[in-house]
Design brief:
Length: 178
């Protein structure tokens, strides 16, 4: 078998770029990630993204606007996945602890090592997913000696991977939940 800290990640992606006359730009990305940190049926996540740009200074209606040497509007949306939890959180791993021996039977001097569930399992945990939106522009002035960029960025994460709130009296570490 594998050691308890073993995990594997497989990723596949494809990208398509489109550029029409250096003024209309489009990129599409499709990504699939698989992680051994999740139970079968939850191991794979799909994370797409799209971005677009429009170079306004390549348009004929901008020919008479001398203020800009270059002006581009851009926007993007995409998803990222996170599988950063300890391996085998979906299983009930049995741990042995020789430091916390206990007596068994009538012989109080004979100490026995104990086994206990290290974590409470959760077969339903799956990928944490972040949606990200970025809107901005790039502008060059004064024969491109002055350049500026503006960014508006928003990120929202769903299905966070967190420890479940559990009382300590259960005797095991809490499971990860989304």
């Amino acid at each position: 078998g594998y050691p308890l800290d073993y995990s594997a990640l497989a990723s596949f992606f494809g990208r398509v770029n489109y550029n029409y006359k250096e003024k209309y730009l489009l990129t599409l990305v499709a990504r699939a990630d698989g992680s051994s940190n999740f139970a079968k049926g939850n191991q794979w996540g799909f994370f797409p993204s799209v971005s677009a740009g429009w170079v306004l200074t390549e348009e004929s209606f901008m020919d008479d606007v001398a203020a800009f040497d270059f002006l581009k509007l851009r926007a993007s949306w995409g998803q990222n996945g996170n599988s950063s939890i300890d391996p085998y959180q979906f299983l009930s791993i049995i741990a042995f602890n020789s430091e916390n021996n206990y007596t068994f039977g009538v012989d109080k001097a004979a100490q026995q090592s104990g086994a206990f569930p290290r974590i409470l399992p959760n077969k339903d945990i799956t990928w944490e997913t972040s949606d990200q939106i970025n809107i901005g522009f790039d502008a060059y002035f004064l024969k491109s000696r002055l350049q500026t960029a503006f960014e508006w960025y928003n990120k929202q994460t769903v299905d966070w991977l967190v420890d479940a709130p559990m009382p300590d009296i259960l005797g095991a570490e809490p499971p990860f939940v989304n």
